[in-house]
Amino acid sequence: MKAEKFEDLLVWQFARELTVEIYRLFEHSKKYYYMDQINRASLSIMNNIAEGFEMRSNKDFRQFLFFAKGSSGEVRSMLHIAKDLNFIDEDQYTKLLNSSIEISKMISGLISKI
């Protein structure tokens, strides 16, 4: 099945779920700069997938997928710090880290198909 809109892409759906989880997890954080950065990075994953898809050019879509993959790495990096500084517990860390790794793999697979 060919995706007709970005919302059809499973990777975008997973990125959306990750974004919601991160926003909810940090919504009451007093660590504003940290919270703002991880929220923006997670949002960037799904938004870059959407923006690239809407360009309707494989070259542009591919470039935006690379941006999304970079943002996924940024989220993972920030999750390591969140765990190290006890902003999140081990279970939260593992769940979100695994989710971001899976999204990154899915993005890589999509890049290779374009």
What would CATH call the homologous superfamily?
Answer: 23S rRNA-intervening sequence
Number of helices: 4
Through-space gap between termini? 15 Å
Number of domains: 1
- Note the beta-strand portion: under 5%
CATH architecture: Up-down Bundle
Integer-rounded radius of gyration:
14 Å
SSE pattern: HHHH
What can be said about the biggest beta sheet? none
Shape annotation: elongated
- Indicate the CATH topology: de novo design (two linked rop proteins)
Report the strand count.
0
Average predicted confidence as pLDDT = 96
**Would you tell me the structural class of the helices and strands?**
mainly alpha
| CATH top-level class | Mainly Alpha
Can you offer a commentary on this structure?
This protein has 114 residues and is an all-alpha fold. The protein has one domain: 23S rRNA-intervening sequence (de novo design (two linked rop proteins)). The protein is 80% helix and 0% strand. It has 4 helices and no strands. Helix 1 (10-26) packs antiparallel against helix 2 (32-54), helix 1 (10-26) runs antiparallel to helix 4 and helix 2 (32-54) runs antiparallel to helix 3 (58-84). The chain is elongated. It starts with 9 loop residues before the first helix and ends with a helix.
